[in-house]
C-alpha cells in the first residue's frame, strides 16, 4: 500500500494531467501549409466544382499542395520537356547553296519603228532647148551641160535612163557621180554649187528610175579640167577595189648583208 505522502503526490499529478488535457482540447487546431503553383499547373485544368463540392475540392487542393511542397513535383511533371523558347530576333544562320544560280534571261524589248521608204525627189523636167551631150566613158557615161546650166535635154535624159538600167542589172555595184563646173579662181563657191546642182539632178533621175539612194554617191570631180561642165557616171563594183589593192605594187626594203664573224664591217 502507498503511504499517505505518495498518495497525495499521485493525485496531484493526475489532476494536473487532466487539467492540461482539458485546456489543450479547448484550443483550436493550427496547421501550416505551403502551396506550389508549378505543381498545381502540372495537374492540368480542373472542372469548376459545384456549390456542394467546392469546399471538398478546395480542401483536396490544399492537401495536394502541401504534399507536393514536401515531396516535390510528380514524376510526369518533371519528365515534361521544356517549352520552346521564343525567337530571339536574330537572323538565321547562312546556308551554302548547292550550286550557282541560273543565268538570267533577258528579253529584248520590241520597238515598233515605222518602216517606210524615203520620199523620192521631184521629177527632173526635160528642157528641149538645153545644151548638153552624152559621151561613153570607162564603166559609164559623161553627161555634158551648157554654160552655167543644170538642165537636161532629151539626149542626156535618155543616157541617164540607160545608166539606171545598167545599175539595176548589177545589184552588187554602186553608182559614182563626179560633178564638175567651170568657174574663175576669184569665185570658187559658184562652180561648186553649180556642180552640186548638176550631180543632184542626175541623182534624182536615177532614184525615180528605182535605184536606192544608198547606192548613189555624189562628189566633186577631182580630175575635172578647167572649164569643164559635166557629170561622170561610173559603175563601181565591189571586186574592183579588191583587184586594185591586189595589183598595187609593194616596195620591199633592200636586203642587208651580215658580215662574217671576225671581219670588219665596211
What's the short story on this structure?
It is built from 7 helices and 5 strands.
Q: What is the string of SSEs from the N terminus onward?
A: HHHHEEHEHEEH
Named at the architecture level, the CATH assignment of the domain at 136-246 is: 2-Layer Sandwich
CATH topology of the domain at 136-246: 60s Ribosomal Protein L30, Chain: A
Instruction: Give the low-confidence spans.
Output: 242-260
The CATH homologous superfamily of the domain at 136-246 is termed: OmpA-like domain
| Radius of gyration over all CA atoms, rounded | 63 Å
Q: Provide the spatial order of strands within the biggest beta sheet.
A: 1-2-5-3-4
Shape: rod-shaped
Quickly count the helices: 7
How would a crystallographer describe the biggest sheet? Answer: 5 strands, mixed
Gap between N and C termini:
173 Å
Kindly state the number of beta strands.
5
Mean pLDDT: 75
| CATH domain class name of the domain at 136-246 | Alpha Beta
Helix content: 25-40%
Sheet-strand content, in percent, reads 5-15%
Name the structural class.
alpha+beta
